[in-house]
UniProtKB/TrEMBL annotation:
InterPro entries from the UniProt entry: MIPS, Myo-inos-1-P_Synthase, Myo-inos-1-P_Synthase_GAPDH, NAD(P)-bd_dom_sf
Region annotation (Disordered) ranges: 341-360
A matching Pfam family: Inos-1-P_synth
Superkingdom of origin: Bacteria
Record protein name field: Inositol-3-phosphate synthase
One GO MF term: inositol-3-phosphate synthase activity
Family: Belongs to the myo-inositol 1-phosphate synthase family.
Keyword line: Isomerase
Ranges of residues in domain Myo-inositol-1-phosphate synthase GAPDH-like: 204-312
GO biological process, one term: phospholipid biosynthetic process
Taxonomic source organism: Capillimicrobium parvum
E.C. code: 5.5.1.4
Amino acid sequence: MTSITNGASRYQSEKVRVAIIGVGNCASAFVQGVEYYKNADPNERVPGLMHVDLGGYHVGDIEFTCAFDINETKVGKDLGEAIWADPNNTIKFAEVPAKLGVPVYRGMTHDGLGKYLKEKIVKAPGETADIVQILKDTHTDVVVSYLPVGSELATKWYVEQVLEAGCGFVNCIPAFIASEDYWDKRFQKAGLPIVGDDIKSQVGATITHRALARLFHDRGVKMLHTSQLNVGGNMDFYNMLERERLESKKISKTNAVTSIMGHTLPADDVYIGPSDYVPWLTDRKWAHIRVEGQAFGDVPLNVEMKLEVWDSPNSAGIVIDAVRCCKLALNHGLGGQIDGPSSYLMKSPKHQRPDDEAREATEEFISTYAGLPGTAPVAASVDAEAAQN
């Protein structure tokens, strides 16, 4: 993470202006969440939020500027309408105005539409919109990517647009950008922040599994075998029936757990990944986690649990902080991966650390960079230096 002095002159300090790539269930939950919590009391502990106010930005300070999709059911509509369009099927927990004044433009396809998604989605006619110009014209601060798993080429194409437009980036999918030196250096050179990769849900399978793995390690129990089987009924799970698109997802979820175990398990003793598509679950996800270990006296100790969540709101509870952290970094001219928030909010950051340490680093980042845009950072690379020492 590097620091340059472009913050005060380039960006609006009073709002967090956000563009969305991919208007699916996660986008729906994010948009609903901003509406739901826009009047939350920052002096109270509010269920569902880690921070009502984050570094001076209230949830209600998040504004949506534009969105991009390829589905004919969404392109050309207002974002307030598109979040309810087929095949979206997440829970409705907030009334969102149908006219937010935020258009959904025709995005780029590339490899974003796999063989299973092609059965459900018809591409909108017309050319790809001028992404760079739209981001500039709308004064977008932060771009959030919700592209389908396996969208490697599409992700890299969009990242180039984000860099050219001069925006921060939150990468919610397991296409490795923030964690790769090449892209990290590109963002550093541009003086633009990135939070990534692959969103770690509020209380999802990954962070729960990590907690169990760390508990075994801290209490002296040797983990011998572990598995995490996930099923769901949204388009994310339908897309992941195409196993060729799953490699990065399995790597991301597996490394997120094994990186904090304290020892290495043979590959055959670890299975973590999506498992199947169950349509009637809609946007609900069931995660079945099992951990087998060797405890005191070498006797067996096994833990088995089932987690049931609404998948997309679980993600939105984290993105709502990620965009505000990205905005703080943007204000202060920080470029490259934002290390503390990435390690706490994402499955595959550049530097893995236990979640309690990641949370501490994130809170330190927020307290360091809270305040008016352009003010001198207290420590430009605190998180990155700590991770390397």
